[in-house]
Amino acid sequence: MPHCSSFQNVTIEEIEISDNWNIHPFISSQPSARLSSSIQNTGLLHPPILLKLSSNRYQLICGRSRINIFQQVYSAQSFITALILDEKTPTRRILSYVLEDQLLNCGLSPMEKAFFFKITLNHMTIKDAVDCFSPIFNEKIQAHAINKLILLSGLEPELQIDVHIGKLGEKTALELLQLDTKDRLTLHSIFQELELGGGKQKRLLALSKDLAFGQRKSITELLTESDFKEILNHPEMNHPQKAANLFSTLQKKLFPQSNAAEDHFIKSVNKMELPASCSVNHSQAFEKDEISVVLRFNTLTEVEKRLSEIKKLMKK
User: Fold this and answer.
1) Which residues contact 255 (CB under 8 A, 6 or more apart)?
2) Cα distances (angstroms) measured from residue 108 to each of 70, 113, 145, 174
């Protein structure tokens, strides 16, 4: 039997605002300027979805922002047009409406997926969720991926927002969840302060985690030490310079022997006073004793002219 739904006018006072189906609780209740402008210019093109509870009560399924803006724009109007789902609508059908409603607007962010599946697993098994919603997502969703996504709902609200808008990668966010709250927030504040992208976020997380573990202290204790505070609070360095100095200091503290060897090598090469067209390079991480010397020429003809000298040099 086909599911029963219909568009109806209901008074706004009859709508019960509920978080039972809210897949983006991390988003500010302040409506977006773009949505507000759209409703002002063209009216409510995308009606909210409500579940009928009784003869004059309805539970909000989707469209909280749309209702809020509608009330602001049409303050004198007491009713709103909505898609009404029958009170006997099965739960999985309601969830399909939640998903389809969001997909009409745009794809789901990792955070929206996290909360969608968190709600879903309150009503069905993970296998049923995969079978039911993979076709709507138009992709094969794995059970283990759903479990990972749901973990994101345990992030602090400010981190959830950054995951939602793409400033914080899903994989990095999951790694941050393995840290305690204080360390997670410390790293996130530095991500924001220095405006670090995905690759640099991962690098800072890896370096600080390894160094803190080696020194048997928390990441917060590590990054609030004087040398790191001096970098982060430096009045003249810009964000890229602070990031570069931060990574360099972490690297030196994490690999002191390698960095000592690097400093010695650079000093030795500088003493040679080689021309700019010549450079000396060591093996990766000094794994071998051999070095390479690079001679740069402007043209192949120049190489040919000096070939006899080069051959003679290599025979010695």
Assistant:
1) none
2) 24, 6, 15, 18
